[in-house]
Amino acid sequence: MPPITLPGIDAYAEAHSAPDPAQLAGVAGNDLGMGHLVSGQLVGGLLRMIIHSLQPKLILDIGTFTGYSALSMAVALPEGARVISCEIDPERAEVARKHIAEAGYADVISVRVGPALDTIAAIEEPLDLVFIDADKPNYHNYYSATLPKLAPRALIVCDNTLWRGEIIDADSTDPDVQALRRFNEAVAADPRCESVMLTVRDGVTLIRRV
Ligand SMILES: C[S@@+](CC[C@H](N)C(=O)[O-])C[C@H]1O[C@@H](n2cnc3c(N)ncnc32)[C@H](O)[C@@H]1O
């Protein structure tokens, strides 16, 4: 993925940030030949910083893929806390379950196979942290479905909200760009929340309910 920052800046930031925890070795999507889909070291580190402060009990990870984001967060969780991770593709879910079991987190992370919106609808406990990183046309649906379920100090973290910088290309006809643009505009205009869009890697938006 081409960076949205100056050439070399992401590599510099990665070199001067905590490395991926050892439990993530081999989880970065390469076994499925799609390493570019994982959220990566900087986003994983940002999520762990949030978790250390927030001390969440329940995290929702929307978009499991190989389990990289779920494991990135699980390693920082306090005792007794859990991650529910949503994946529509059964093959990817199996790969993720294998990685999660090998890392010793099978009791902490539950991978739910099926459309994430169905998984979200079945969750009754308050969500302390939500990481949205699945199909872009559903970002607004994931936001709408999780907002009413948030615990008082919860955060929603959304990946890829600047989409390789193409988000500001007014001529883009890419359906993902158009969906992300509609999502970004809706969040910025929603009086129920406060948000900040960070130019980290591919764009990361943090949202809290006010
Ligand atoms: C970008 S990848 C997730 C990467 C992961 N969060 C990480 O950091 O390693 C997006 C994943 O969302 C899954 N996905 C797409 N549509 C979905 C849906 N409707 N419900 C659940 N998962 C979905 C895809 O199969 C894919 O594995």
Automatic annotation (TrEMBL):
It comes from the Bacteria. Gene3D superfamilies: Vaccinia Virus protein VP39. Keywords: Methyltransferase, S-adenosyl-L-methionine, Transferase. CDD domains: AdoMet_MTases (cd02440). This is Methyltransferase. It comes from Streptomyces varsoviensis. The lineage of its organism: Bacteria, Bacillati, Actinomycetota, Actinomycetes, Kitasatosporales.
